[in-house]
């Protein structure tokens, strides 16, 4: 048998130690980032936004994944569609605003005009032999998971999206994402590789010492702990949390709210995890007083005391669904050492700011947490640049989900480039 030459990326993939962080080039190298864009962001279902981003016919929202600009539109029949944001004439970008409302999509360069189904309906001076039907906008695969929007740039997207939707959909559906509006959006440019942002999210090992706001409503115990290393106070709280999980899961599921953990973070191509977790204090929402931030509850809920449904999807999102509002997060690479973290707060579409909710109260916990996490990601990025950096071991008790994220990433890269 011939020994085929290996590429630098294949060599790096072989170097990954199970249960450890990645070799430094995975966080630093422009060549690795280029492979990430081609094989992870170019071939998988990527979370970009929510249906309320395009709530009405004619609404357009632009999402950029690397060099690819995508126009998501709601057409006249109410269907959500996605197209490459590129005119079929000479390639000008069609829509330059992040969000807008249009009757048709009109190129600002030569006024080629497309309807909301992507058909070219007007092009001056092209001669009698020109066929408009051959020059419609190039479509992008798009799926809505109970109002969460995912796109795929591959010619043939992964087919297991349906499996994720079948199992995850019943958890999300009661929160009725489609009947919400975006109350606030925050964009942060984090000073780190996108994988460091995702690794940071996938654990709460760091929460107790870094997130004083977040740990008011959120139990860090829900993300793993080592009981043998805890003092009496922490052991008592961990025991209280365990009792709450058992009691609340039974109650919530009796009310028709699926709650128990599903974990497919490194066992599917379109990988995900979910669980409904108890909240501390009043147990209603991610706020500093743990009470509901919005008076107008979501869906058909009669009470806000429903814990927090946490949802994770690979490679780039996590979400928290409360009884009164929803917080969604997406991460997109900007270059090898910078990432865009986009956070949206959703409330009932009829909720009125200043009457039903106070924006500062709604957003303060996660705005503070995002700033704290951004600084931590930057510290990790600085460390990865050091000649002293070497992959370190993950905690088996608190960093299990980090390990699963890296397992998924390495497995998907190896599937596409070999190992």
In short:
The chain has 419 residues and is of the alpha+beta class. It has helices at residues 8-15, 25-28, 30-39, 161-172, 194-201, 207-210, 232-254, 359-384, 400-417; strands at residues 46-50, 59-65, 68-74, 80-84, 99-101, 105-106, 113-114, 120-122, 141-145, 148-152, 180-190, 262-263, 272-277, 308-313, 317-321, 326-335, 338-348.
Structure description:
Keywords: 2Fe-2S, Dioxygenase, Iron, Iron-sulfur, Metal-binding, Oxidoreductase. Residues 47-151 form the Rieske domain. GO terms for molecular function: 2 iron, 2 sulfur cluster binding; dioxygenase activity; iron ion binding. This is Aromatic ring-hydroxylating dioxygenase subunit alpha. The protein is of the alpha+beta class and 419 residues long. The chain folds into two domains: 49-144, Rieske [2Fe-2S] iron-sulphur domain (Rieske Iron-sulfur Protein, 3-layer Sandwich), CATH 2.102.10; 159-417, Naphthalene 1,2-dioxygenase Alpha Subunit, Chain A, domain 1 (Alpha-Beta Complex). The chain has helices at residues 8-15, 25-28, 30-39, 161-172, 194-201, 207-210, 232-254, 359-384, 400-417; strands spanning 46-50, 59-65, 68-74, 80-84, 99-101, 105-106, 113-114, 120-122, 141-145, 148-152, 180-190, 262-263, 272-277, 308-313, 317-321, 326-335, 338-348. The strands form four sheets. A seven-stranded antiparallel beta sheet has the order 11-17-16-15-14-13-12, with helices on both faces. It has a four-stranded antiparallel beta sheet with strand order 4-3-2-5, with no helix packed on it. A three-stranded antiparallel beta sheet has the order 1-10-9. A hairpin with a 4-residue loop joins strand 15 and strand 16 (326-335). Helix 5 crosses helix 8 (359-384). The protein is globular and about 85 Å long. The protein starts with 7 loop residues before the first helix and ends with a helix.
């Amino acid at each position: 048998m011939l020994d085929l030459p290996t590429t630098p990326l294949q060599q790096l993939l072989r170097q990954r130690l199970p249960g450890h962080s990645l070799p430094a080039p995975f966080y630093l190298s422009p060549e690795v980032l280029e492979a990430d864009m081609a094989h992870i962001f170019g071939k998988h279902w990527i979370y970009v936004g929510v249906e309320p981003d395009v709530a009405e016919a004619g609404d357009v929202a632009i999402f950029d994944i690397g060099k690819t600009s995508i126009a998501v539109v709601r057409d006249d029949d109410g269907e959500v569609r996605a197209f490459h944001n590129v005119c079929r004439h000479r390639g000008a970008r069609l829509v330059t605003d992040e969000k807008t409302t249009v009757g048709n999509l009109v190129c600002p360069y030569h006024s080629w005009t497309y309807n909301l189904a992507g058909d070219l309906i007007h092009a001056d001076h092209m001669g009698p032999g020109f066929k408009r039907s051959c020059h419609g906008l190039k479509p992008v695969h798009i799926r809505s998971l109970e109002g969460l929007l995912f796109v795929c740039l591959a010619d043939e997207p992964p087919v297991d999206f349906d499996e994720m939707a079948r199992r995850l959909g019943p958890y999300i559906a009661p929160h009725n994402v489609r009947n919400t509006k975006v109350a606030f959006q925050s964009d942060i440019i984090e000073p780190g590789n996108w994988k460091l942002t995702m690794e940071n999210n996938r654990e709460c090992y760091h929460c107790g010492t870094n997130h004083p706001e977040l740990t008011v409503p959120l139990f860090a115990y829900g993300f793993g702990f080592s009981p043998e290393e805890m003092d009496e106070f922490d052991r008592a709280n961990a025991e209280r949390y365990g009792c709450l999980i058992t009691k609340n899961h039974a109650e919530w599921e009796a009310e028709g709210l699926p709650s128990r953990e599903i974990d497919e973070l490194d066992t599917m191509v379109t990988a995900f995890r979910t669980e409904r977790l108890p909240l501390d204090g009043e147990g209603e929402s991610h706020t500093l007083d743990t009470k509901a931030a919005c008076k107008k509850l979501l869906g058909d809920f009669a009470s806000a005391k429903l814990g927090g449904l946490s949802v994770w999807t690979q490679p780039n999102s996590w979400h928290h669904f409360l009884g009164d509002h929803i917080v969604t997060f997406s991460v997109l690479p900007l270059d090898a050492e910078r990432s865009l973290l986009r956070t949206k707060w959703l409330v009932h579409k009829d909720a009125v700011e200043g009457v039903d909710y106070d924006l500062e109260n709604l957003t303060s916990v996660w705005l503070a947490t995002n700033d704290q996490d951004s600084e931590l990601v930057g510290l990790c990025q600085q460390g990865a640049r050091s000649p002293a950096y070497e992959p370190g071991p993950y905690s088996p008790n608190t960093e299990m989900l980090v390990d699963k994220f890296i397992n998924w990433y390495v497995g998907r890269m190896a599937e596409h480039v070999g190992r």
